[in-house]
Amino acid sequence: MHASSQKSSNIGMKMKKIIINVAKTLYSVIRAVKNCGNDKFLQLDNLTKKDLCVLGNGPSLNHNLINNIDFITSRVSICVNDFISSDFFYTIKPSYYLLLDPAYWRHDSISEYIEIRNSIFNRLNQNVDWCLTIIIPSIGKKELDWESIFDQNKNLKVAFINTTPISGYECVRHFLYKYQFGMPHAQNVLVAALFIGINLGFKNIFLLGADHSWHEELFVNNDNVACMKDRHFYDNGEVKGVPFPMYHDSSEIPKLHIIFDAFAKMFEGYHYIENYANYRGVQIYNASNKSYIDAFKRCAI
Length: 301
Known about the structure:
Blueprint: H1 2-34, E1 51-55, H2 61-67, H3 69-73, E2 76-80, H4 88-92, E3 96-98, H5 111-127, E4 132-137, H6 146-149, E5 156-161, H7 170-178, H8 189-200, E6 204-208, E7 218-220, E8 226-228, E9 242-243, H9 256-279, E10 283-286, E11 297-298
Parallel strand pairs: 1-2, 1-6, 2-3, 3-4, 4-5, 6-10, 10-11
Antiparallel strand pairs: 7-8, 8-9
Helix pairs in contact: 8-9
């Protein structure tokens, strides 16, 4: 009886998994078809360099900037979010700058983030003297007048990427990823940056500054509010713990179980990226001096 019950339970679990995967796949295909009119990111042909550095903003990037700057500058690089806050932006001269968070492109973002993004846009217009492609989610194409924002600097080009989350069966996922009907759920901007690197045709991708150690900086205050010290490599002085925002353009403060659930989805996203990289014949190396990401081969540079 016990063996029969166990067998029935296993069959039930397998059927449940199949049903979930079929549902996720169908839902992803429907979303992909619905959003197929979104701009696709143009793939590059005949890359002169096959290596890409994906630069996160974690504190560990300081180690690489001090010890491995020649390694970084000799390769194509993509940076994210507030990387321009550091003078190293002008040393590295990245080829791509990804602004994924809605705070950077929503017309109705809160005033604090509108000021931050305007400062970023001004610095890009005034100081970039090399060819730089600024990448925005295609859903943000009509949020702002991008042509007029960057018309002061002919070195700047804006491109759009389809960020529709795709899940379900691997063979379907990879087909939709390759033709840019969507990407893995980008709970963190580095998921999207790695995805872009794969689809651009780079064969070796080095991930740096991807500490992902926010759980070390989390605490719950006496009002049961989840707070965090959000540290970056470009910080000056002590970082204070503040209520944890789930999204930059929202004042909503989630409970701790919601935060850790988001972390789980984020780390899972990197395994989706690794599977896709293997499918495309791309090797991703996690060269971060400190990192909690366990999806990629580690390497020291």
